[in-house]
Amino acid sequence: MTSSQHPTTAEELRGAGLRVTAARVALLETVRRGDHLGVDALAAGVRDRVGHISVQAVYDALHALTAAGLIRRIEPAGSPARFEGRVGDNHHHVVCRSCGAVADVDCEVGEAPCLTASDDHGFSIDEAEVIYWGQCPDCSTTRS
Ligand SMILES: [Zn+2]
Ligand SMILES: [Zn+2]
Ligand SMILES: [Zn+2]
């Protein structure tokens, strides 16, 4: 997965000004390998690699990685936060109302903000958060 011209995960953490710990390296790699995982699944993935880590430590590390821009947090209304490694583009998400499955949706515009506010109230707007809601293929077939 990693080739020699790409920085290692530890180098990326250092480059983002973060202290490098085994748990942070494992967490960043688990987020990137996963598909919009929640905190519990991430904690389990990190424990598989580095042994015991408290949920609070996972939260703290997720916060640091998010603040550094290495991962992105998405928080659909009414469902727990998920994390992904796809950062640096303005993509959106589609969320299943029944099971909470999340998938990436490329932005038609490509850059934020991709919707124009009819009235910006004098704010300098830098993002329009778009979440598409519906039923995933599995849930729509079980219901029909
Ligand atoms: Zn579903
Ligand atoms: Zn995504
Ligand atoms: Zn968009």
From TrEMBL:
Q: Which GO terms describe its cellular component?
A: cytoplasm
- The UniProt annotation places Fe cation binding at E111
Name of the protein in its database record = Transcriptional repressor
Q: Where are the transmembrane segments?
A: none
Cofactor list: Zn(2+); Mn(2+); Fe(2+)
Against InterPro entries, the record matches this protein to:
FUR, Fur_C, WH-like_DNA-bd_sf, WH_DNA-bd_sf
Localization per record = Cytoplasm
Taxonomic lineage = Bacteria, Bacillati, Actinomycetota, Actinomycetes, Kitasatosporales
Question: Which note does the record give on the cofactor?
Answer: Binds 1 zinc ion per subunit.
One GO term under biological process is:
regulation of secondary metabolite biosynthetic process
Pfam families for this protein: FUR
Q: Which family is this sequence assigned to?
A: Belongs to the Fur family.
Alphabetically list the UniProt keywords.
Cytoplasm, DNA-binding, Iron, Metal-binding, Repressor, Transcription, Transcription regulation, Zinc
- Which GO molecular-function terms appear in the entry? DNA-binding transcription factor activity; transcription cis-regulatory region binding; zinc ion binding
Q: Where does Zn(2+) bind?
A: C96, C99, C136, C139
